[in-house]
User: Which sequence fits this backbone?
């Protein structure tokens, strides 16, 4: 049986946290092998949506599939096939780079963990710092370690939650080059971001505000729909529109 | 997903690596029990002697003087102050300058000789009943003995009649009535309760605060794997602590280990699992390290106070005994005292071991059950 054409196909996804509707009946469809940018202001529900997609939060309503697996029933299978990078660096700061990667390799039950870790470190230029504690790394190196750990088990889908927040432009560029290289090898990426230049690097973008999807399409389509010449203006336009629609 | 030894091993390795780098915890593991042992072992005494005592003597007879000398010579009373009025004696008690005031009434000798049984007053500061209990209990015997040499000849009739029987008292398992024999086995339980619960609960809530738990949850690990991987290192730490206490107690305070070491190790294992699993369960219900400390203390304080460690269990009302019976430390303290001091065998500790094993199963099951696989 061939793999479904959508890596993510969810409908009517809703989540209320502490009495506030954070995600409001959202439909998300992400084609395999593409990079999707998830844009929205702070508190718009990006992180909550991503957490629901990787099984960290249970949706209050809605259904769908992630990599063809049921979002509610097949959480364990989804976790094996998805790489998730959190907004804040969430690897163990009192472990070295190598120890962090070894841990991930062991937990995912890889056949040749040592070789996988070694080649992963070489690919991400982490080998020279293998024995450095993660807590002693700069933001850019932490981000690189987090990405290396997320792709170590060769996931089919990568969910990145504001991965470049607080990272210098050079590190951001290198990060995006790596993301593009991964996508070129067939990996699907859903990345949330605040940066408009990053949005432009995506194949598709989704604007989300106040828990609602406001617009969806390629950069050109979004600009056409909004009637603006820059993504930044179109983003502000859609956020204002969402704010006006708020009850 | 089935339980995987390799995934559990990965979590274990990670925990050990983290613990290895956590010097503060390593130091606490050894120093904390040692410090408590020295403090409790040397400092706590439930039968204090040489209580500061003032005397108000309204009679200057040989009988009154011998009575006071008898009190002075006893090990319970340190008679170093003489007062001239009841008011002065009460003031000393009020200010806490003395623990006891002895008042010998006027015409003490005359009334004694006439067989009128004069009343000597012993006022003891009972704000701390344990502090004065020994002295109060010993006072009648000391008084009678101090006058024995004066009650000769015709006065020998005034001597208290001998009991019609001989009561032979053996203080079994602790002939000298040493407080440390009682305290130190209990101290093992108290320290393991505190450290087992608190360190485990803090360790997990710290993971949540640092965001690493979110990472762990996104990985294919089962609650049982996380629990085993997380608690096994702490079980080993608690074992190390128990070993430190028992070894130092043996060599420093001469606390015997009359029973089987293997039996002690078994009871320790069940008790330690109870505590670390409870710590694990607490961590699933709190949001931050401060809350985990507060909840741990909420469980720890009644555990310590109602377990029989500080106060006699049978002396508590039934409702308090019921609370005491619902914490594992109560059973462990009885087992520890049994094995260390009485040389109890497996079947002799069974009545206290099975509740401990039951606690172990319940807390471990609750910890796995309460562990959330999501951030909901």
Assistant:
């Amino acid at each position: 049986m061939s793999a479904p054409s959508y890596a993510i196909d969810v409908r009517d996804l809703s989540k209320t946290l502490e009495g506030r509707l954070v995600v409001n009946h959202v439909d998300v469809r992400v084609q395999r092998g593409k990079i999707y940018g998830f844009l929205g202001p702070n508190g718009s529900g990006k992180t909550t949506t991503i957490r629901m997609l990787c099984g960290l939060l249970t949706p209050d309503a809605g259904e769908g599939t992630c990599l063809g697996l049921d979002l509610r029933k097949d959480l364990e299978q989804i976790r094996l096939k998805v790489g998730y990078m959190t907004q804040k660096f969430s690897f163990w700061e009192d472990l070295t780079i190598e120890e962090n990667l070894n841990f991930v390799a062991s937990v995912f039950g890889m056949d040749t963990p040592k070789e996988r870790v070694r080649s992963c470190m070489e690919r991400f230029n982490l080998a020279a710092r293998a024995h450095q504690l993660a807590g002693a790394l700069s933001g850019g190196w932490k981000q690189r370690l987090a990405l290396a750990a997320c792709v170590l088990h060769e996931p089919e889908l990568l969910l990145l939650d504001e991965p470049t927040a607080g990272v210098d432009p050079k590190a951001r560029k290198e990060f995006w080059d790596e993301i593009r290289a991964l996508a070129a090898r067939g990996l699907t990426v859903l990345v949330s971001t605040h940066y408009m230049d990053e949005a432009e690097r995506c194949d598709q973008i989704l604007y989300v505000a106040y828990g609602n999807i406001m617009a969806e399409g390629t950069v050109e389509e979004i600009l056409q729909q909004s009637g603006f010449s820059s993504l930044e203006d179109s983003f502000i336009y859609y956020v204002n529109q969402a704010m006006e629609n708020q009850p | 997903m089935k339980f995987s030894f390799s995934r559990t091993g990965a979590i274990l390795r990670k925990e050990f690596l983290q613990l290895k780098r956590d010097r503060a915890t390593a130091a606490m593991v050894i120093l904390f029990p040692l410090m408590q042992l020295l403090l409790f072992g040397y400092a706590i005494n439930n039968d204090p002697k040489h209580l500061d005592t003032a005397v108000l003597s309204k009679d200057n007879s040989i009988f009154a003087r011998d009575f006071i000398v008898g009190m002075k010579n006893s090990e319970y009373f340190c008679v170093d102050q003489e007062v001239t009025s009841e008011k002065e004696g009460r003031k000393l008690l009020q200010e806490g300058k003395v623990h006891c005031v002895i008042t010998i009434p006027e015409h003490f000798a005359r009334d004694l000789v006439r067989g009128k049984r004069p009343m000597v007053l012993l006022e003891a500061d009972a704000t701390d009943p344990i502090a004065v209990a020994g002295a109060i209990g010993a006072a009648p015997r000391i008084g009678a003995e101090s006058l024995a040499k004066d009650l000769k000849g015709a006065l020998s009739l005034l001597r208290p009649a001998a009991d019609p029987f001989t009561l032979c008292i053996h203080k079994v398992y602790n002939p000298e009535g040493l407080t440390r024999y009682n305290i130190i086995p209990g101290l093992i339980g108290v320290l393991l309760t505190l450290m087992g619960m608190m360190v485990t609960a803090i360790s997990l809530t710290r993971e949540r605060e640092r965001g690493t738990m979110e990472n762990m949850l996104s990985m294919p690990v089962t609650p049982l794997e996380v629990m085993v991987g997380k608690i096994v290192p702490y079980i080993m730490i608690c074992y190390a602590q128990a070993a430190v206490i028992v070894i130092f107690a043996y060599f420093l305070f001469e606390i015997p280990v009359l029973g089987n070491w293997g039996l002690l190790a078994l009871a320790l294992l069940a008790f330690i699992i109870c505590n670390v699993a409870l710590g694990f369960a607490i961590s699933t219900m709190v949001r931050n390290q401060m809350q985990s400390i507060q909840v741990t203390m909420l469980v720890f304080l009644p555990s310590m106070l109602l377990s029989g460690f500080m106060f006699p269990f049978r002396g508590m009302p039934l409702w308090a005994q019921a609370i005491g019976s619902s914490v594992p430390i109560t059973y462990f303290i009885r087992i520890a005292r049994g094995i260390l001091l009485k040389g109890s065998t497996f079947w002799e500790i069974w009545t206290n071991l099975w509740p401990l094993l039951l606690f172990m199963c319940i807390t471990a099951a609750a910890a796995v059950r309460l562990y959330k696989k999501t951030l909901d």
